[in-house]
Amino acid sequence: MKGVVFAGDRKIEFMNFADPSPGPGEVVLEIKASGMCGSDLKFYRSPAGEAAKSLGLGSSAPVISGHEPCGIVVAVGSGVNPKQAYIGQRAMVHHYRGCGACPHCTTGWMQLCDEGVKEVYGVTGHGAHAKYMKCPAATIVELPDELSFSTGAAIACGTGTAWGALKRLDLAGDQTIAIFGQGPVGLSATQLASAMGARVIALDISDERLKRATELGADAVINPLQTPDIVGAIKSLTHGLGAHATLDASSSAEARKQAVQSVRTWGKACFVGEGGSVSLDVSPDMLRRQVTVIGSWTFSTKGQAECARFIADRNVQVDELFTHRWSLDDADQAYKLFDHQTSGKGVFLM
In what residue span(s) does the Enoyl reductase (ER) domain sit (predicted)? Predict the structure, then answer.
């Protein structure tokens, strides 16, 4: 089969790989949709192998990219419980493999494995930008019949990550949340928070993305390039109190600082954007206002399933996140466009 490989320095290669067959405890999916995630750009832009090495998981062998897999189970290895995975099952993949036995792995948090994550699919293990993908049955999460494969691909990372962060914040329908950054994760958070009944203030430096945020449920939008006092602007929209919660999906140091400063007393700020840093004045920004600062890294298999069920039950139109739908043959063009970070989310459909 043909697979898409990040060759380094913004180069895509199409390489041939053997069709996978499942070993004990494993399954093979025929991929129907494979999403493009913002974190792909780290590996797309990096010199060959450098981004994977930074995770301590580098390998010299080429790896098929794509860590938002969704498809149909077409082969099952020995020892797989049919309640876990079965041929014909519509499924997403939780894109990490751990030891499988520690307290984190057995509760669906393979990325927090006590022994360190063994593989990240699409980075150090073959991912979903190909016709087939092999993975442990323990990483399979069933896709509800009501949802499209492209929606499942979004839930498999970007939308699921937004869900995980909103759950960490304990967001309620009578609250206001300010969401910094309206890329794929931020837009997902806007869409989900709105479906939860919360009032959403969306922030981004792209007017195009702010327009999409409004279409997906934002009640107010702020462009920091056009607003000199972000904290003041958020307070003016919340009766001078500040937001109940904030979520930073931008990875901007300044946005993270503003996210903490713009919550009200007893408020919560969640950082979900990868990398970077932030500098805070601890007493006024946090201590003297009883502010909680939270870090949130993706989600568990249980959380992934709960996110999918919520989206199906509330009829959340996740497919509206996608501005571009591609075939695998278009991968080079697709990532060149995505690299500008001005468009919405893309997905490869097979």
Answer: 8-348
Please state which CATH number belongs to domain 2-156+317-349. 3.90.180.10
Cα–Cα distance, 12 to 139 (Å, whole number):
27
- Rounded distance between C-alpha atoms, residue 339 and residue 147, angstroms: 28
> What is the CATH superfamily name and number for domain 161-295?
NAD(P)-binding Rossmann-like Domain (3.40.50.720)
Question: What stretches of 259-334 adopt beta strand conformation (E)?
Answer: 263-271, 292-295, 322-326
Q: What stretch(es) of the chain map to CATH 3.90.180.10?
A: 2-156+317-349
What's 38-59 look like in SS3?
A: CCHHHHHHCCCCHHHHHCCCCC
pTM: 0.94
Helix axes 184-195, 301-314, angle to 10 degrees: 60
The percent helix, strand, coil of the chain (3-state, each to 5) is: 35, 25, 40
The closest of 163, 157, 127, 164 to 141, measured between CA atoms, is: 157
CA end-to-end span of the chain, whole Å?
Answer: 13
Residues 261 and 112: their CA atoms lie apart, in Å, by 29
Instruction: Say how far apart CA 247 and CA 328 lie, in whole Å.
Output: 33
Round to whole Å and give the CA distance between 345 and 161: 14
* Dihedrals phi, psi of 49, to nearest 5 degrees: 80, -10
Q: How far apart are CA 112 and CA 117, in angstroms?
A: 7
- For 230-282, what is each residue's pLDDT tens digit? 999 999 999 999 999 999 999 999 999 999 999 999 999 999 998 899 999 99
